[in-house]
Amino acid sequence: FVIMIYFNFYTSTSKLSNIKDNSFDSCFCFHVIEHLPDPVSVLKEIKRTLRPDGVVIIEVPHANDLLLSM
């Protein structure tokens, strides 16, 4: 069972407050965190909504990535 959630984090994380604590088994953020104005708040909300044995996978671009230098 997969739930995909899209939020506009640029305005606020208040929509995440509607999600119950310990609701998700996993969270994947690929090239997202570096675009958030307040990533710490978002990470705290992700932690709150994850189950105790939940997994978070975060991928951000590497500073020396060839694509960033083009």
How would you describe this structure to a colleague?
This protein has 70 residues and is α+β, with helices and mostly antiparallel strands. Helix content is 16%, strand content 24%. The protein contains 1 helix and 2 strands, in the order E-H-E. The chain has one helix spanning 39-49, and strands at residues 24-30, 50-59. Strands 1-2 form a two-stranded parallel ribbon. The longest helix is centred in the middle third of the chain and has 11 residues, at 39-49. The model has no long low-confidence stretch (mean pLDDT 78).
Q: Helices and strands in order, then pairings?
A:
Layout lengths: L23 E7 L8 H11 E10 L11
Parallel strand pairs: 1-2
Strand count, sense and closure of the main sheet? 2 strands, parallel
**What amount of the residues lies in strands?**
15-25%
Alpha-beta content class: alpha+beta
What's the helix-strand series?
EHE
Low-confidence residue ranges: none
Quote the average pLDDT: 78
The gross shape turns out to be elongated
Distance between the termini: 39 Å
As an assembly, this protein is single chain
Q: Widest sheet: strand order?
A: 1-2
Query: How much helicity do the residues have?
Result: 10-25%
Radius of gyration: 14 Å
- Count of separate DSSP helical elements: 1
Number of strands: 2
